[in-house]
Each structure stands twice: as C-alpha cells, then as structure tokens.
Specification:
The complex is a heterodimer of chains A (224) and B (193).
Chain A (H helix, E strand, L loop, with lengths): L6 H4 L3 H22 L1 H10 L20 H6 L13 E6 L9 E5 H17 L7 E4 L7 H13 L2 E3 L6 H11 L3 E3 L2 H13 L4 H4 L4 E3 L13
Parallel strand pairs in A: 3-4, 3-5, 5-6
Antiparallel strand pairs in A: 1-2
Helix pairs in contact in A: 2-3, 5-6
Chain B lengths: L5 E2 L7 E3 L4 E6 L13 E7 L10 E7 L1 E2 L11 E2 L4 E2 L4 E3 L2 E3 L1 H8 L5 E12 L2 E10 L8 H19 L4 E5 L14 E3 L4
Parallel strand pairs in B: 11-14, 12-13
Antiparallel strand pairs in B: 1-2, 2-7, 3-4, 4-5, 5-8, 6-7, 9-10, 11-12
Helix pairs in contact in B: 1-2
Classes of the chains: A alpha/beta (224), B alpha+beta (193).
Chain lengths: 224, 193
C-alpha cells in the first residue's frame, strides 16, 4: 500500500501542481532579480524582466545557468542572502575543476529534510526503522542530508558515515540496522568486506531496505 | 534511490521530481529547445523554493526522458527515467558518441557479468580503440576456454548492437578491478590530443 509523507502535496492534481509552480516561478524571478546582482545582470543582458514571466511556458524566456557560473562567482557570488541568514555550507569535491560552494538558510535545510522524508517514506522506511547513514558526513551533502531527512521522519539514525567498514558491519549486526543510506558502490564494497569477514548480511543482520543517491543504474542491491 | 530533488518510489518505474520545489525541463543539449515528451534530452532544473542559492534553468548535463503516464503509486509529481548518462561524460570514439551509461545498461542485463567494469579508450596509430574490462559474476567464471570465448562474443555483440562500434571485451576475475568508497571512476581515456 502506498504511504505518503505529505499526501496533500504528493497526490495533488496535476493542474493544481502546475498552478502552484507558476505562482512560485513568478515569485522566484522577482526574488532573484532583487536579491542577486548576478541574476540581475544576467537578466538585463538577456533582455528579460521579472514581469515578463507570467506563465510556466514563459520560463523559456529566461537565461540558462551552468556549472561554470558557480565557478566564476566562487565562492558565494551567486547567493541571494547575506551571511547572517546562512546556516550551513556544503562544497563539491571539485574533481572536474574548482570546487563549487552551496549555502543554505534554515528554510533551505528544512525543505531539503522534507524532500528526503518524503523519499524515505516512499520506499517504506518509517519511524520504526534504524537507518544507518553510510554516506560521507562533511562537505559532501549525502551524509548530513540523509541524517536530517531521517530525523525529520522519525527513524533512528546510526550516523556511521562512510569508511571503517568492519566497524560499520559490527554496529549493523549489534544495533539491528534495518535500512541503509549509501552509494551503491559503497554497498557493494560492504558486501565484499562482509564476505571476507565471514558475515552474511542476509542472514546475520536485519537489513531490509537500501537507499542510495548518486551512481545510477546498478542492479538490485539485495542480491548479496 | 532518492535525493533532495526526487525519489524513486517503490514502484521503481522512474523518478518523481518534487514539483512543488523544482521545475523540470528536458531540452535538446545542442539547441536548448524542449524535446517532444518522451524523448531523451538534457535535464534542466529550476529551484522554486531555495533562498540562499536559487538556480534558474540550471543545466545539469544529465540525460533523461519524461514519462507521461500516471504512476501507480498515486504521486502526481512528474516522472523522468533513471539518468542514462551525462551529456559531458560523453566520449567520442572513432567519431561515434558513447555514453558510459549505455555500456553499463547493456552489461547489467547479462547475468554472467558482475557489478564492476572499466572502460579504457586508447589511440593505436591513427585509430581509437575502446576496451571494456568486465568483472565476471562470481558464479560465472569457468575453466573452460570455450565458455569464456562464447561469453566474450555475446557481450561484444550486445555492445556493438547498441553502440554501433566494435568494442574489445576483456573478462577479468571477480574482485580484480579497483574499488572506491565514493563515486566510481568508470572511464580511463589514454588518448593524447
């Protein structure tokens, strides 16, 4: 049976959703034009004004943003709020160039946690679960993102972060982890480590649900 | 699979993007124009609720398609397919566009194939060559040379039909390719410009 975190929003009729998007888009273009010198300049160069955006279709009048813009304005040149309103930074690893920095207000963090609470609920993770967060904690968004989402939803978080795999497996067994959030490649690594240690994840742990982020396309995690 | 923008619900039939928070466009990566519904294109995201760093029409460089039928889970938020590759991960081999995601999806349909592979691109003389090292599934490794040859042939045939490109297949033992604890690197390009 499907369960929703927020049934009203998640099952809202498509037409209503579009209306909601249209309202938010109109507010957004005014907001960025007034608060970000970067976007104001970009809109001016492109010959578009916030008032020009009246419907969802009008979005095609707006200029694109690309990763290079974040690099060119490094670290915070695209932000719309002063530092006093920021509660957190995250930064990309910068493997393909200079790192990019993202800032969050309290509202941004709350919205993010809510998205993840919806996601956890959609795959059947709930308040009774013990969720091991094996994404890296730190500058990478995976660990703290899943952590806050899980706390919002009410599961019990086991914040192992990634690495130290033998200890992770021990805690998984001892505390009865029922769900895990990690990258598929880390989960495969865990399965192999477990095998070397002589542990059967299937038989000796209570793990039932996996939850992953990047690295799309890997097959069913449960085959191990 | 899930993240701040989306969830793959328990139906596992595409990814829902939370429409009250994000606006999705699927565009032709060359022209920037919308592709017809259901066709593959580049994912472009506008954040509708972010305060600190809103992004307007951000070009994610991931390739996907929109799914228009309603989802059985009852969620009305628009669905896209799992990401089939990145428009900037594309490698060009002998003039043909190759996405690592295409190779991955071919390999993952073959039961004898394990979970790890590596794409190696080289230039031998004037010609590009592409090789895929593939870890076998533990249960699939055979002592019989003829079995292995047949499997190699099957894999290279499947790759050729999708990529229109001859790919050298090298089968390696389970556990022999490098592992990573983060995102895995799947392509080694040894060509010098």
């Amino acid at each position: 049976m499907p369960e929703y975190w927020d049934p009203e929003i998640e099952t809202m009729p498509v037409e209503d959703l579009k209306k909601l998007q249209e309202e938010k888009l109109k507010q957004l273009v005014h907001y960025v034009y007034e608060n970000s010198p970067f976007y104001r300049k970009r809109f001016d160069e492109h010959g578009v004004r916030p008032e020009d955006i009246r419907t969802l279709e009008d979005i095609t009048k707006l200029p694109f943003t690309v990763k290079q813009d974040l690099r060119d304005t490094y670290p915070t040149g695209m932000f719309c709020v002063p530092n006093s309103k920021l509660v957190r930074f995250h930064a990309s690893s910068g493997t393909t160039g200079k790192p990019t920095v993202v800032g969050y207000t309290q509202k941004d963090i709350d919205e993010w946690a809510e998205s993840l609470a919806r996601g956890f609920t959609s795959v059947g993770v709930g308040k009774d679960d013990i969720l091991q967060v094996s994404y890296g904690y730190g500058l990478f968004t995976g660990g703290l993102g899943a952590h806050y989402g899980s706390e919002k939803m009410g599961a019990t978080v086991l914040p192992t972060s990634s690495g130290n795999t033998e200890r992770q497996l021990e805690l998984m067994k001892d505390l009865g982890t029922t769900a895990i959030a990690c990258t598929p490649s880390y989960f495969l690594y865990m399965i192999e480590t477990a095998r070397k240690e002589g542990i059967s994840i299937r038989d000796e742990t209570k793990l039932k649900k996996g939850f992953s982020g990047p690295n799309p396309g890997l097959r069913n995690l449960r085959q191990g | 699979m899930s993240g701040p923008l989306f969830t793959e619900c328990s139906e596992q039939c595409g990814i829902h993007i939370w429409a009250d928070k994000f606006l999705v466009e699927i565009l032709d990566p060359e022209t920037g124009e919308p592709v017809p519904d259901g066709e593959s294109g580049e994912l472009v995201i506008t954040t509708l609720t972010k305060e600190a760093l809103p992004l307007i029409r951000y070009r994610v460089r991931d390739l996907t398609r929109k799914l228009s039928e309603p989802c059985r889970c009852g969620r009305t938020h628009p669905r896209i397919t799992r990401i089939s590759g990145r428009s900037d991960d594309m490698i060009i081999v002998r003039g043909i566009n190759v996405f690592p995601g295409q190779i991955e999806s071919v390999l993952m349909k073959i039961p004898e194939v394990g979970n790890h592979f590596m794409i190696i691109v080289d230039r031998i003389g004037p010609l590009d060559s592409i090789k895929v090292q593939i870890e076998m599934h533990e249960s699939a490794f055979s002592d019989k040379m003829s079995d292995m040859m047949a499997l190699k042939k099957k894999i290279s045939g499947a790759l050729k039909s999708v990529l229109s490109l001859a790919v050298e297949v090298e089968l390696v033992e389970h556990g022999s390719l490098p592992r990573s604890e983060g995102k895995s690197k799947k392509v080694i390009d040894n060509r010098k410009i």
